[in-house]
């Protein structure tokens, strides 16, 4: 079988190689085997390849935070999936043609889902969902301000917020995405800049904003903090700037702003297996109805991982780069 291995932690398209490795073998009791049908190349995967991500396992290492697969075999005692079922995998190392994992990590999803969309179900949709449910007790009519609003997570935040009657201020680097975000349900769209807090106040009529969602970090975190009301919360879930979050001492001490962080795995670990499956069942149902849809830029075979990685790091794309290890999807 084919798998992507890193020979070092460095420039992704240089260190990632498609190699032949032994088959994963038959599942033991409590395990499943599935063919990987598609996986996306996420920013976290790029960081993993570079060695800048929080996980840095011994080499050779296989990237891959998410994928969609089809069950080919189940071990004794496995009852929640059967051969032929589509699944997403809660574990990593998914840049491969096959995976053998503990059955509890294979989450069944409807066979009717579009495979390209299903490949992107594991991370971004629950991230957006839990950012709106687990950080602050938001109610209909509340405002949320977020940056990187044109990202996959940002677009989903808009979609889920609209569904709940929550209003959003959406901050981007470019104005040319405003129409798309407005069509999704964005209430306000603004470009980032030093005067962002003043423009947010004007656009919302001076509304109290209880939550800011930050994926840029650095000085952007301070701008987000200046947009929210006293004793509100700023939650950082990414650092696209490459810098650590900056938050003025006055916001923390005098205004009582709470600063926190979000990582999907940490928030899912607080839930039971049944609860996690229920979350993904709900998200899969939304995907079936077309409420969740992420643009796809291109799909590459696994043998062309170098070209796929180069494309995934190219600016101006409108969508994710996917890889299909076992034929076209």
Q: What labels describe this entry?
A:
329 residues; alpha/beta; seven-stranded mixed β-sheet; globular
Summarize the structure.
This protein is an alpha/beta fold and 329 residues long. The chain has twelve helices and 15 strands.
Shape: globular
| Relative strand content | 15-25%
Number of strands: 15
Biggest sheet layout: 7 strands, mixed
Could you explain how this protein is built, in words?
- This protein has helices spanning 12-15, 43-50, 115-118, 124-133, 152-164, 178-184, 196-203, 219-225, 249-253, 264-268, 273-288, 305-312; strands at 2-6, 16-20, 31-40, 68-74, 86-89, 98-102, 106-109, 143-146, 167-172, 188-191, 211-214, 233-236, 258-261, 296-301, 320-324.
- It is α/β, with parallel strands linked by helices and 329 residues long.
- Strands 3, 4, 5, 6, 7, 14 and 15 form a seven-stranded mixed beta sheet that branches. It has a six-stranded parallel beta sheet with strand order 10-9-8-11-12-13, sandwiched between helices.
- Helix 9 (249-253) links the parallel strand 12 and strand 13.
- Helix 4 (124-133) crosses helix 5 (152-164).
- The chain is globular and about 60 Å long.
- It starts with a strand and ends in a 5-residue tail after the last strand.
């Amino acid at each position: 079988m084919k798998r992507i291995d890193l020979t070092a932690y460095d420039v992704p398209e240089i260190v990632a190689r498609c190699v032949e490795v032994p088959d994963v073998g038959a599942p033991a009791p409590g395990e499943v085997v599935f063919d990987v049908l598609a996986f996306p190349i996420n920013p976290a995967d790029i960081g993993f390849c570079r060695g800048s991500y929080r996980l840095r396992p011994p080499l050779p290492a296989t990237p891959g935070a998410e994928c969609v697969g089809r069950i080919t075999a189940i071990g004794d005692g496995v009852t929640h999936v059967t051969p032929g079922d589509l699944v997403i995998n809660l574990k990593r190392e998914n840049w491969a043609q096959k995976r053998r994992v503990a059955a509890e990590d294979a989450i069944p999803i409807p066979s009717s889902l579009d495979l390209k969309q299903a490949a992107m179900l594991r991370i971004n949709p629950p991230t957006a969902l839990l950012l709106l449910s687990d950080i602050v007790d938001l109610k209909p009519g509340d405002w949320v301000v977020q940056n990187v609003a044109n990202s996959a997570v940002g677009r989903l935040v808009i979609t889920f917020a609209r569904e709940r009657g929550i209003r959003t201020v959406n901050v981007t680097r470019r104005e040319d995405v405003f129409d798309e975000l407005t069509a999704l349900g964005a209430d306000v769209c603004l470009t980032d800049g030093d005067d962002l807090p003043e423009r947010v106040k004007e656009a919302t009529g001076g509304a109290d904003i209880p939550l800011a969602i930050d994926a840029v970090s650095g000085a952007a975190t301070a701008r987000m903090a200046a947009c929210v009301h006293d004793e509100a919360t700023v939650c950082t879930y990414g650092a696209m700037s490459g810098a650590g979050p900056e938050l003025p001492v006055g916001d923390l001490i005098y205004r009582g702003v709470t600063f926190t962080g979000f990582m999907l795995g940490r928030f899912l670990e607080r839930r039971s297996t049944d609860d996690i499956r229920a979350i993904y069942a709900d998200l899969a149902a939304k995907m079936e109805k077309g409420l969740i849809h992420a643009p796809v830029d291109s799909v590459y075979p696994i043998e062309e991982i170098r070209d796929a990685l180069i494309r995934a790091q190219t600016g101006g794309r409108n969508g994710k780069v996917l890889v299909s290890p076992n034929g076209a999807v």
